[in-house]
Amino acid sequence: MKESWRWYGPFDNITLSEIRQTGATGIVTALHEVPYGEVWTRGAIADRRREIERAGLKWVMVESLPVHERIKRGDGDLSQLFANYRQSMANLAEEGVTAICYNFMPLLDWTRTDLTAPTANGGTCLRFDATRMAAFEIHMLGRAAAANDYPAEVQTGAAAWFEASSDADREALLGSIMSGLPGAFDRYDISGLRKALTLYDGIGREELRANYRRFLEEVVPTAEDLGMRLCVHPDDPPRDILGLPRIVSNAEDIAWILSAVDSPANGLTLCSGSLGANPTNDVPAIARRFADRVHFAHLRNVAKESDGSFEEAEHLEGDTDMVDLVRAVLEEEQRRRGAGRADWNIVFRPDHGQELLSDVDRQNPPGYPLVGRLRGLAELRGVAKALLSIAPVAAE
Ligand code: DNO
Fold first, then answer.
1. CA terminus-to-terminus distance, the chain
2. pLDDT average, residue stretch 225-252
3. Confidence label for 4 from pLDDT (cuts 50, 70 and 90)
């Protein structure tokens, strides 16, 4: 398993030389400063690549080359946006960066209601609280149909939270919900969000799927020609949110995506934390079922609660059997080696981390502290090493 680390480039105050000390050798990054939909120039990619290589590391994965909202909505003439996406892909390939993670979540990327929920050991973690999300949707946003998405007791709790909340509480909640958007783009206030949501009127699951299929048809052949791999990131959380459909949430969705354009270039980011937030998703089973199309793994864990809330747990704790999941990845590597596949070494990164120790002073992007992720990486490395030494991993 190829150890990698997400680095936000100029937006990150963790330096490449610090990352080098974690033992990770691969860098996962993006040109976050380029507005969505614009071409990543070869020169800008080369500069970033050289900066990474000067630190003794290698740019192994793009996360993300964002898919423009208009493509998600199927809005108007998209030919320029598709052409730009393909041009960015070609420029990346020229610079030797051949794997791209992206998502197809409408409007928002990952969504949490609390960025600093206290953990039992004195650190903090990211939390999705069903009551607060309901308070946001029903009372702050005033989305009429939102009540249907929450059980009665969550609605009652939401009304109580809203009644008791101060302006500062509500601002903080809005801020947390908007924090999933990387870089500096497209954060909304309440009225901006209401307006952005109306652009999705009439776009349900089937429409979004049609728009996604069109995107895949436009870019997967290019990826094949360039020897690149695309890997879609699952929805986080894996359920409809703000009334917007989500179509990358479970095994059925993934099966649909991978067969919509059936090519090895059309692959999956196995994000155990995102998938693991839905109680009906068996993450190791999903990993095994789609193993040959997993081009990237995000390894982290969540602890779920009965009302739909969840918290980011320590990497080896929480609801997903992480040892079994790592075993599934190692089994796939073994199969690929047996089949002579050059891409047998699956890139993974410790996804998110709790804020521990000095993390609290560093102002890192939510979910991406140094110590918490280093802990996750070290634990995952230990699991992989132990599994490999106990017995050769079973392979067919
Ligand atoms: C969250 C990340 C996601 C991911 C995008 C990929 O921590 O895993 O924001 O980068 O969804 O496009």
1. 19
2. 96
3. very high
| CA separation for the pair 50, 57 (Å, rounded) | 10
Looking at the DSSP bridge assignments, the partners of residue 297 are: 270, 348
Per-residue DSSP letters for 203-235? Answer: --HHHHHHHHHHHHHHHHHHHHHHT-EEEEEPP
Q: How far is the CA of 109 from the centre of ligand 1 (A)?
A: 7
| Residue pLDDT, tens place only, 37-76 | 999 999 999 999 999 999 999 999 999 999 999 999 999 9
Rounded to 5 degrees, φ, ψ at 2 are: -85, 115
352 is catalytic: yes
State yes or no: is 233 an active-site residue.
yes
Determine the distance separating the centroid of ligand 1 and the alpha carbon of 236, expressed in angstroms.
8
Question: How many residues does this entry show for the chain?
Answer: 396
The residues, any chain, with a CB within 8 Å of residue 337's CB and separated by 6 or more, are 344
Annotated catalytic, 139? Answer: no
**163 C-alpha to ligand 1 centroid (Å):** 33
Q: Which residues line ligand 1 (CB under 6 A)?
A: 63-64, 101-103, 109-110, 180, 182, 233, 298, 352, 367
Active-site annotation holds for 351: yes
| Structure tokens belonging to residue 373 | 């992720």
pLDDT by residue (tens digit) across 52-61?
999 999 999 9
What tokens were used for 87? 């041009």
Choosing from 181, 212, 236, 295 the residue with most ligand 1 atoms within 8 A of its CB, the one to mutate for a pocket test is: 236
Report whether pLDDT(234) > 90.
yes
